[in-house]
Amino acid sequence: MKYLFSIFALVLLFSSCVEKTKIPVYVWTGHQKEMSDTELKEKFKDLKNKGIDGLMYSGGQDPETYKRVGKIVKEVGLEFHTWIPTMVQGEDKKLDTTLYALNGLGESAFDKPAYVPYYKFLCPNKDEVYDFLANLYGNIADIKEVDGIHLDYIRFPDVILARGLWDKYGLVMDKEYPQFDYCYCDKCVSDFHEISGINIKEVEDPSAIEEWKQFRYDLITKLVNRLADLVHSKNKKINAAVFPGPNSVAKKIVRQEWDKWNLDAFYPMNYNDFYLEDTKWIGEVTKEGVLLTNNSKPIYSGLFICPNPEKKTKEPDPENHGLLPEELADAIKESMVNGAAGICLFTPERMKDAHWVEFKKAIYKDYSIK
Ligand SMILES: [Zn+2]
Predict the structure, then answer these.
(1) What would the mean pLDDT of 215-244 be, rounded to a whole number?
(2) 253 CB contacts (<8 Å, ≥6 apart)?
């Protein structure tokens, strides 16, 4: 009997060890002003119990919000990364309207944004833009409870939209069109002329000029790396939400050469439904990112969750598509066996009970054993 009991104890011990093998999981989540501290704490505790390790937290630009929320996040024992858009900035007294990017027709993203009214993109080639961002992220990185700065919209506007969005906007984006192509401000045009000898405004098809593409990848890369130096000097982490790839998608449609960025981690938005792709594709783009970064930085595969699974097939807007509960485990597996360090959910609020059931089964697995 004593022997049996020992075996039983061993089995219990073993299963609790197995239980500890969990993949790292982050979530993108937004601040809800109306929630009290107690309610926030309950929400964060619930996420922690479900297996979440850290939050990419969108709470606007006021450091006070992150001070308040960060304290609660830390009490619960989660990582706290502040999720704040970078190049997209609404009207702001601190930003002169001349700092916004110009498209190939000479129109400003400030008063004639592409696709949607909030697409007010700044030009990444202006010192005042860096100063604005350095001030914004610097003040937030100074907050004790903040573990990291999470950049988003750290890119140019989509010169080509993801395939799944063409119908929504009534566009056929078979090539780069000037109204979606940025930045043709005087500084970008003259700086490019200086280094290449090419006056890009006189070129009939700028998309054929490889150096012009590279020039703009480099503008974003330089900006990111300056911000990384600043945040690192405050002993905080810095990471970013990026488009998949980078070669297959990110460089081509939003000019992110993110394998050159000095960040601590990457969160590629491997949102297969936006590209009319399946979960297998999630594995392919994960692998691409891991290879191009020489497996030197953690890559957390961003998964887009379907908020109303029963209506997905009737829903025309891809924003309401995403992974069904029955696809979630496979999306997690594809990410992990292809080298992801973990996953990031967009968003926990979109997850239905059926998603959480599948999620729980999938995160307590050791994917190093294929
Ligand atoms: Zn410019």
Answers:
(1) 98
(2) 158, 159, 160, 161, 162, 243
